[in-house]
Amino acid sequence: MSARIRKIVTFVDEVFLEMGRPVEPPTRRAAAVAVIENPFAGRYVEDLTPLMQIGEELGRLLTERAVAALGIPGDQAQSYGKAAAVGEDGELEHAAAILHPKLGVPVRQVLGKGAALIPSSKKRGGPGVVLDIPLGHKDAAFVRSHFDGMEVRITDAPRAGEIMVAIAVTDSGRPLPRVGGLTRDQIKGEDGLR
Amino acid sequence: MPEVVLRKRALIIEEIFHEGGPPAAVPLRRGAAMALIHNPFAGRYVEEIQHFMKDLEPLGLAMARHLLAALGGDAKAIQGYGKGAIIGAAGELEHGALWHAPGGYAMREVLGGAKAIVPSTKKVGGPGTRLDVPVTHIDASYVRSHFDAMEVGIADGPKADELLFVLVMTTGARIHNRAGGLNAADIKGEDGLR
């Protein structure tokens, strides 16, 4: 099944100053969010395979959009995250079916690598619900400077029979990171953790 | 002369395919460029503030160009526009009014001489405040199909001593517009109204 997309919204933010100090280079984050029809709204359906296929399709589309919005080649992305918000006539499990089984493979194809788990969040809500997409380093989940989150929100979504699916990509960590932990230059890149 | 100190900029690009009706042949795109800057007048009453409008002109132009590029780069494709400001809590509404001239000038400059007044709104608010930026046709304010609005905001701004300035551009009418009135095809283009 292919997604019936009502709209795609892309968000980009760039931070130049934090507490009066220059952030050099500026930190940059992008999120691409699709608002799609929930084919299973309003009824219980056992087999969620079609939503898994939709996840695969959106994984590629939204990652390409986010990377394009940053204006970088995919392999220059540093961290990523994903999230979904299901409208009131859907189940949390619908979000899970989109996000977890198949979405990650095309995300990693677009970004070149991606050994780390893609951090995720999901919720059910009405139009305008706020989605906080967790962010973590794409090759080593323990890179502390890249633990972050990006808030997205679309005024008119999700309607009751819709699902919002979001992918966030950055080319940087937090502005002025200084809480220690594993750093980018220490990544071994073997297990996706360190 | 106070300089413009930019903390953060953000873009939102919406691509709308349908809203429950027949998918449009050409999706509608709406975009917003936002800038969070320091408010040089925060925390006290300053009588003479007009000089800051001149300082804001380069920011306005940069935002208009950035937004146009994010919408595809073709000035002829832009049909609607609007602007707005959110003033952090240590500022006054009047500080937001400083955006009228540089924001409008910048979009006219980049779009090559749009005739209609740029509709606008402003308010004082804290971080995360949302603003519904009004949108009308760039050459004739009465074109009913292009009456629209785009909701914008930034989770962590404006701080009390900041200003959030917004420019919005759109590539067409509401996606299923059918409420009648003056059509874009019937614009006389003499007075910016009809």
Could you explain how this protein is built, in words?
The complex is a heterodimer of chains A (194) and B (194). Chain A is globular. Chain A has 194 residues and is α+β, with helices and mostly antiparallel strands. In chain A, strands 1, 2, 3, 4, 5, 6 and 7 form a 7-stranded mixed β-sheet that branches. Chain A has helices at 49-70, 92-99, 104-111; strands spanning 5-18, 21-37, 79-86, 120-124, 130-137, 148-153, 162-170. Chain A has a single domain, classed as 60s Ribosomal Protein L30, Chain: A, CATH 3.30.1330.110. Chain B has a single domain (6-186), classed as 60s Ribosomal Protein L30, Chain: A (2-Layer Sandwich), CATH 3.30.1330.110. The termini of chain B are far apart. With 194 residues, chain B is of the alpha+beta class. The interface between A and B is medium-sized, with 19 and 21 residues.
Defining key terms:
heterodimer; A: 194 residues; alpha+beta; 60s Ribosomal Protein L30, Chain: A; 7-stranded mixed β-sheet; 3 helices; 7 strands; 35% strand; B: 194 residues; globular
Q: pLDDT under 50 segments of chain B (min length 5)? A: none
CATH architecture identity of chain B: 2-Layer Sandwich
Q: How much helix is in the residues of chain B?
A: 10-25%
Supply the CATH class of chain A: Alpha Beta
Count of distinct structural domains of chain A: 1
Question: What is the multimeric organization of the chains shown?
Answer: heterodimer
Beta-strand percent range of chain B: 25-35%
Mean of all residue-level pLDDT scores of chain B = 95
